[in-house]
Write a structure and sequence with these properties.
The chain is an alpha+beta fold. The chain folds into 2 domains: 77 residues, no CATH class; 210 residues, no CATH class. The chain is built from 13 helices and 13 strands. The protein is globular. The two termini are 33 Å apart.
């Protein structure tokens, strides 16, 4: 039987485990938000009609909260669809060997630089092969299906590029998976070696052991995926699962006790759904590793989409493509977004009468 609000239940039961100075501040802040989401602890807005009164408790807006993710995801998709031109895109997945995952989990300042490394690799290859610049969107991803820490990147790249020397748009661009792999592998290993040389690489292994390990990983094959050319909507639907939602959906939990957590997972090798078991503290530790640090974006923009470049070239790019640049859509209100996406009007009472705002409840003292 599905468990009601399982994540809140788990985090509330293990507060003494994660709410301590040894845990990253971002983890403590986000877990506390999840527990208090849509409760009196965050305050509420009070609406009323002639017959009824309704309390709408404030949401926490945390990316780790399963209750806040769906609406935010839909609004994000709407904004991105408007901002991106209607051209074909390719999806690129950049991975790394699993022996490197613990390094980036322990050295999160290095993890934050991976999107820039990946974008530089792709842009350099495109420039060398085609002499063009492309639109690049990078979604950093840190979790696997079993909630294990797995650092890799999902990237959307325009399947065409701006050849500035000729002032024209060229398409299609075909990405060479093998050459991208070699460049990506070189970039990551070189970056880690530089961090090790400057004593910026925290690890249980000695510097000599790390050097040997990096050499071995540089000599092996790394998996790189290049998807067929698709529309921007296909990528936005795919990326939305990672940019605004926690790594595990509420409906996947099957059992929670004071010692253990069980949830369902797709096993791609066996092609079936399996049950994953965690001790409850181990589950919280695994979930904590997926919480991004404060001020870290879930999506990064490079190339022609880089913030500084986009301001100067966006209008010209749309004109070159023969498309009209769409104005940024006005953000939907809470009520309008629920009506549009979920078919529910939260400000209509059980008799069909409209409700209006009457007062605000302050957050409860904690």
């Amino acid at each position: 039987m599905p468990v009601k609000q399982p994540l809140k239940q788990i985090l509330s039961a293990t507060r003494s485990h994660w709410d301590c100075p040894e845990i990253r501040p971002a983890v403590r802040e986000n877990f506390d938000k999840v527990i208090n989401c849509r409760t009196q602890a965050l305050g509420a807005e009070v609406f009323a009609s002639e017959a009824e009164e309704k309390f709408v408790y404030h949401s926490c807006k945390s990316r780790s909260c399963p209750s806040c993710g769906q609406r935010a995801t839909l609004l994000w998709q709407r904004e991105q669809w408007t901002a991106l031109p209607d051209i074909p895109y390719s999806g690129i997945g950049l991975t790394m060997p699993d022996v490197l995952w613990p390094i980036f989990r322990q050295n999160r300042q290095l993890l934050h630089d991976l999107p820039a490394l990946a974008a530089a690799v792709i842009q350099q290859w495109v420039k060398t092969r085609y002499g063009a610049r492309v639109l690049i969107v990078v979604v950093p991803h840190t979790f696997g299906r079993h909630l294990n820490f797995n650092a890799h990147l999902h990237i959307m790249v325009s399947a065409g590029g701006l050849k500035e020397s000729e002032g024209r748009w060229i398409a299609p661009l075909r990405f060479d998976k093998q050459k991208l792999m070699h460049m990506w592998r070189y970039a990551v290993i070189t970056y880690l070696r530089a961090a090790l040389k400057k004593s910026l690489l925290a690890s249980k292994a000695s510097p000599e052991e790390l050097r040997v390990m990096l050499k071995a990983q540089y000599e092996r094959w790394w998996n790189v995926y290049v998807d067929p050319i698709r529309s921007k909507w296909h990528f936005l639907r795919y990326a939305a699962r990672y940019v605004r939602r926690p790594p595990i959906a509420q409906h996947r939990f099957t059992k929670i006790t004071d010692r253990e957590v069980e949830f369902l997972t797709k096993d791609l090798k066996e092609k079936r759904v399996v049950t994953t078991h965690y001790l409850i503290e181990e589950f919280v530790d695994a979930l904590a590793a997926q919480v991004p640090d404060r001020y870290r974006h879930a999506m990064r923009y490079f190339g022609l989409l880089a913030p500084g470049t986009k301001r100067m070239t966006s209008a010209a790019l749309f004109a070159l493509l023969g498309q009209n640049k769409r104005p940024r859509p006005q953000r939907l209100s809470w009520r309008d977004s629920l009506r549009k996406y979920f078919g529910v009007d939260p400000l209509v009472d059980s008799r069909g009468q409209s409700m209006h705002w009457v007062r605000r409840l302050k957050p409860a003292a904690r």
